[in-house]
Amino acid sequence: MIVDINATKNHVKRDIEDIYEFEVAAIRTLITPKGKKKAIVTFTDDDAATEIATRIGLF
Predict the structure, then answer these.
(1) Which domain holds residue 24?
(2) 5-30: pLDDT as tens digits
(3) For the chain, how many structural domains are there in total?
(4) Residues 29/39, Cβ–Cβ less than 8 Å
(5) Residue 3 contacts by C-beta under 8 Å, 6 or more apart in sequence?
(6) Is residue 41 within 8 Å of residue 27, measured between CB atoms?
(7) How far apart are CA 52 and CA 1, in angstroms?
(8) Which of 44, 54, 3, 2 is nearest to 22 (CA)?
(9) Angstrom distances, CA of residue 25 to CA of 33, 34, 48, 59
(10) CATH number of 37's domain
(11) CA pair distance 50, 9, nearest whole angstrom
């Protein structure tokens, strides 16, 4: 997901856990060539990503 360029991994983790109510195992971040910050989130629960995608209407 695209996050604020100034957001730290701890900020992203806390916000994801607060909004979606799933425990985050790890966060990886990178800056895209277009200057946007992307966060790759790994959850402790195997079904968390599917559940979140369903909630936001991707499935």
Answers:
(1) 2-55
(2) 999 999 999 999 999 999 999 999 99
(3) 1
(4) yes
(5) 12, 29, 37, 38, 39
(6) yes
(7) 12
(8) 44
(9) 26, 27, 11, 23
(10) 3.30.70.330
(11) 22
